[in-house]
Design a protein that fits this description.
By secondary structure, this protein is mainly beta. Helix content is 12%, strand content 34%. The strands form 3 sheets. The protein has a 7-stranded antiparallel beta sheet with strand order 2-1-5-8-9-4-3. Strands 6-7 form a two-stranded antiparallel ribbon. β8 and β9 form a beta hairpin. The termini are far apart.
Length: 200
């Protein structure tokens, strides 16, 4: 099949690169302790060492999330299920600074174990993070590299095998923004395990 190169002018909004991304809701607080919540998909493990686990969060520097993280150095990654898409989208709306987006959703909060931003109770998994380095690859982008202080999940989830866990949480995938500026989500339905040989 023939291929064509695409202009890379709007990579930030994932218009060009069609790729499934994880869905997280990032909770932060400002210096006054006011909560902010917003969905982010440009999130991935940065260091997988068990002695030094780190996560990478990519954020537009003008957004409240970035400003709060710069002020406090802390954030929580909350992982929602596919059945919570309406509430996920609600947290993406642009409210004035100081507005708690979660008040417009069915989500509730619970205290985190190591950081000030709270966890979202209804999410199946949480990663508490503290920033150790900030990179600025462009005028609008900030890359927060953070140490992982704690990972918490719904009780009993970790006791299941990986396939069973994946089926139970029904994680959504984010596929970018369409022509009418709607968020496009997919649900991971078919999950299976294939045997492989590992050579180390």
């Amino acid at each position: 099949m023939k291929k064509e190169s695409i202009d890379l002018h709007v990579m930030w909004h994932i218009d060009v690169l069609l790729q499934a991304y994880p869905v997280t809701i990032v909770t932060t607080v400002n210096k006054k302790g006011i909560l902010n919540a917003a969905p982010y998909s440009l999130v991935l493990p940065y260091c997988s060492s068990p002695k030094n686990p780190q996560m990478l969060l990519i954020v537009n520097k003008t957004w409240h999330t970035a400003k709060n993280i710069v002020e406090t150095g802390e954030f929580v990654l909350n992982y929602p299920g596919a059945g919570q898409v309406k509430d996920i989208v609600e947290t993406s709306r642009y409210y004035d600074d100081g507005v708690n987006e979660l008040e417009y959703t069915e989500f509730t909060t619970m205290a985190s174990n190591h950081v000030k931003p709270p966890r979202i109770t209804e999410c199946y998994q949480h990663v508490e993070c503290r920033v150790i380095r900030t990179e600025k690859p462009s005028n609008l982008q900030l890359n927060f590299i953070a140490e992982v202080l704690d990972i918490s999940q719904d009780q009993g989830l970790y006791d299941l095998g990986r396939v069973e866990r994946a089926k139970k949480v029904s994680a959504p995938a984010y596929l970018g923004v369409d022509e009418e500026q709607h968020h496009v989500f997919g649900e991971i339905r078919n999950i299976c395990a294939e045997e492989i040989d590992l050579f180390f």
